[in-house]
Amino acid sequence: MPKVLPFKAVRPTRDKVSLLASRSYDTYTKEEREARLRDNPFSFLHIVNPGFKYQKKISGKARYALVRNRYQEFKEDDIFIQDEKQSFYVYKIVNRDGLVFHGIVAAASVADYKEGRIKKHEDTIAYREKLFKDYLKTVGFNAEAVLLTYPDHKDVRSVIEKVMEERAEYEFTTTYRDTHYVWVLDDPEVISTLSQAFESMKAFYIADGHHRCSSSYLLAEDLQEENEDHHGEEAYNYFMSYLIPESELKIYEFNRLVKGLNGLTKEEFLIQLDAMYRIDNRGTDFYKPSKKHHFSMYLDGEFYSLYLRKNNYSIQNSLDALDTQILYKTILQPILGVDDVRNDQRIDYTHGKKDLAHVKALVDSGEFTVGFGLLPITTEEMKKIADEGLTMPPKSTYIEPKMRSGVTIYEFE
Description:
The chain is α+β, with helices and mostly antiparallel strands. It has 13 helices and 21 strands.
């Protein structure tokens, strides 16, 4: 059954954590990154964007080496400390929408990923796996946890509730108005209770971080081959994870935007849609689907509801029943000619935290021609896909919580 271990995290001092913690690098605009790098010498962005020090864009292996250097400098300057005891970390997030997440930061096993006890629902891209594997191999640490979810368990919940009765080691609020709390859990008996609870479970599911997980597995394979004394318990056989119960996982939809109608007029497009959907014109009233296999469409200043004609669509497995797959198989590919939803420049995605007004604005601006609104995929749908060994289309889920980078760091050298 899945194995999780405590570890000695490298983490910022209490007085620096709010300054150091950052979002994932690619979630910032260029202007936001430059402002934080210019005004905050303690930001973790200085580590992952080391070229800022030289006012030069640096990429590839040269960047990886500088990332390692900046990281070592933060340690030398006592911005980071390392725990002396093997610990789990209780991480709580209260976001600005009032959602509350409670999880355990721990080291998860690459062997469990290889053997299917950590299950995936998305495909990974080989070149991205290799790039990140090479990055990890050079820098020697991981600062972004893979988000794993597990069936709710009373023993885990009890431990978390008990730990939270004490003062948190960290409590800080971000400029996004999310508040983060971290407790260090180093009591051997409590660690044993948690480890046994996790090992009693059949499997974990990757909610977010498929490339981080697969790259960690590839890294472990490399280092195992290079280590003549490999015994299986080296730090590189594990990767940092954030485990939260399924009941707290929040999944948002990804809506679709497409440029052009593949040479069709508006009327020709609607006629082709009619073969697979019952179409109702909703005019200028916003329409968001309320049932599975129903879609919202915004085209030429008007909203439409699209109801799948189920007699014309065959469902053979859980992937066929997924709304993102249905939209692809019935509209995007056969009518709009979007075969490669990952790389085709005519399609783009916007997650459900940005509502349909955002979709409408992008179409009204002329940047896109048509927008499609979907319902969020459920946790059960995600698990079924993983259990059947299938993979969802790209951008099927936008999942929270999102930990901050640099709050806990896992070294695997």
